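In the design runs reported in the main text, the only information available to the sequence generator was the tokenized backbone. The following block is the verbatim input for one such run; it is reproduced so that readers can re-run the procedure and compare outputs position by position.
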């Protein structure tokens, strides 16, 4: 039964996020999200143009969370900060696998059609580049950032999809990837 809700948009996004992790993006429907949020079937259409728009907002929230996790000011030495960022990336992906997939696949959400979400994705990459720039010389930062991102993203994806490693190995792997990036500075 639908009822009046103080913040329907937030309730819809919370329901969609929970359903995303349980059912995957393909299994979501605006009607199902409305029902899970306890709102009318029409409620999602008052806030989102369509399913892709709702999923794009979830992806944007994911990039915001990923940035927050990776860019925690620790006061740590640059290498330790790089290790912490890699560990945070892996943790985020393995804790929220459906959201992680949604953020990095164009199958259901093309970020080019959602510039505000693309900006959040770009901000997360820029934060990683800043962290890498603290341990690698200026002319190698772009390449080292690509290597760092590829290593940690590929590893995270393999953990999610193939279960290649025990979650307890995450900190050790983050350290390994940071050492590999530092190797580019030599």
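Verbatim output:
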């Amino acid at each position: 039964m639908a009822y009046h809700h103080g913040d329907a948009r937030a309730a819809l996004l919370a329901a969609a996020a929970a359903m995303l992790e349980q059912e995957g993006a393909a299994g979501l429907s605006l009607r199902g999200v409305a029902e899970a949020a306890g709102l009318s079937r029409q409620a999602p259409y008052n806030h989102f143009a369509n399913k892709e728009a709702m999923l794009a907002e979830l992806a944007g929230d994911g990039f915001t969370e990923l940035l927050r996790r990776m860019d925690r000011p620790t006061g740590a030495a640059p290498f330790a900060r790089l290790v912490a960022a890699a560990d945070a990336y892996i943790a985020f992906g393995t804790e929220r696998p459906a959201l992680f997939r949604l953020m990095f696949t164009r199958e259901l959400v093309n970020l080019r059609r959602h510039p505000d979400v693309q900006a959040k994705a770009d901000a997360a990459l820029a934060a990683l580049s800043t962290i890498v720039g603290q341990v690698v010389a200026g002319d190698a930062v772009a390449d080292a950032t690509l290597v760092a991102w590829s290593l940690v993203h590929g590893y995270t994806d393999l953990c999610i999809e193939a279960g290649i490693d025990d979650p307890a190995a995450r900190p050790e792997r983050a350290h390994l990837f940071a050492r590999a990036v530092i190797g580019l500075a030599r």
